[in-house]
Amino acid sequence: MTSTSQFASHRFVRHLLTPGSIPSRVVLITSTLQMFVVFALDILTPPDIRLHVIYIFPMAAITLHCEQPMAIVYGFALSILLQLTTFVVQGISMGPMVTDTLVAAAASALTIFLARGVRENYLETVDLATHDHLTSLHNRRSFEAILSSEVARLDRYGGVFTLAMLDLDNFKALNDARGHHVGDQALQLLADVLGDHSRQTDSIARLGGDEFAILMPNTGEEDSRLRCRQLGATIAEKMTEAGYGITASLGHVSFMTAPESTAHAIRQADDAMYATKRQQMKGTADRLPLP
Q1: Could you say which of 78, 111, 124, 219 would form a disulfide bridge with 56 (CB–CB 3.0 to 4.6 Å)?
Q2: Distance, CA of 57 to CA of 112 (rounded, Å)
Q3: What is the pLDDT of residues 231-262, one digit of tens each?
Q4: Nearest Cα residue to 105 out of 168, 56, 67, 65
Q5: Where are the domains of the chain?
Q6: Cα–chain-centroid distance for residue 56?
Q7: Using an 8 Å Cβ cutoff, are 49 and 101 in contact?
Q8: Are 24 and 68 in contact (CB under 8 A)?
């Protein structure tokens, strides 16, 4: 029982100290209530016992978990207002009131500065760990976690999702002929095209090299076939306009029952993509004039 309670306590503290792990609205409501509790206790205690230092804790929570600057301004203003009210109610003279208010404001400002730095460093580290540095898309590890969640959702609630895979045709030739910096520009262009022509609910990733994946929740076979065909045409058009002269091969698989694993789902979509590539190569060969 003791180990269970220690684990729960450790999990709660970890959750509390992880930026963004608690919804902003919950943090704002809870922190506001905490400030009013501190205010009430400060009023009820003798004037020589000051509790205003406790305001930095709800202030730190707001700064750590709330993205909006106005939430921080609200927390700062409320804490200073409540402390000023306490000084007035307790009849603190003007000199100590001004001094204590300045000290409280400085403490809150320092708390905001430190907590905001922790939040930004944490989110930057998470971003580096979950996103591809070149395209800013999800990396393989992050995408597999998202796909795993979608597989679990499908297994539990039913429905459908589509997994599409694509890679660029003749990408190695572009790299060899014009250099890797041009190849990187082509990959960035591809990422932009995928982002511009995907829905908010879709998840896009660069799995490695010129191999990309798109997870399309609540998308069946017919819709995904049309979307992949349109996306392939758009990619070819944008690559031609940019002077890269390459195309993309896309393959997709729609799942109405959960695959046995994320690796199995990716393998099926990969096979579909290579089947498309072979078909396109055969079509190109068929169109070549006979010698």
Answers
A1: 111
A2: 10
A3: 999 999 999 999 998 999 999 999 999 999 99
A4: 56
A5: 2-130, 140-287
A6: 28
A7: no
A8: yes
pLDDT at res. 45:
85
CB 280 within 8 A of CB 249: yes
Tokens 């409280």, residue? 104
210 included as an active-site residue: yes
Could you give the CA distance from residue 215 to residue 246 in angstroms, rounded to a whole number?
A: 23
Q: What is the dihedral angle through the alpha carbons of 215, 195, 132, 14, rounded to the nearest 10 degrees? A: -70
Architecture of the domain spanning 140-287? 2-Layer Sandwich (3.30)
> What pairs with residue 248 in β-bridges?
168
Phi, psi dihedrals of residue 166, rounded to the nearest 5°? -150, 150
Q: Specify whether the CB–CB gap between 206 and 187 falls below 8 A.
A: yes
Q: Classify residue 134 as left (phi > 0), alpha (psi -120 to 50) or beta.
A: alpha
Distance CA 28, CA 58 (A): 9
Residues in Cβ contact with 21 at an 8 Å cutoff, skipping those fewer than 6 apart = 15, 65
Q: Which residue has the higher pLDDT, 280 or 167?
A: 167
* Catalytic annotation, pick one of 132, 169, 210, 270: 210
In 3D space, the residue among 245, 266, 265 whose CA is nearest the CA of residue 257 turns out to be 265
CA distance 190 to 210: 9
What pairing do the DSSP bridges indicate for beta strands 211-217 and 203-208? antiparallel
pTM score > 0.85 for this model? no
- Tokens linked to 211: 């191999």
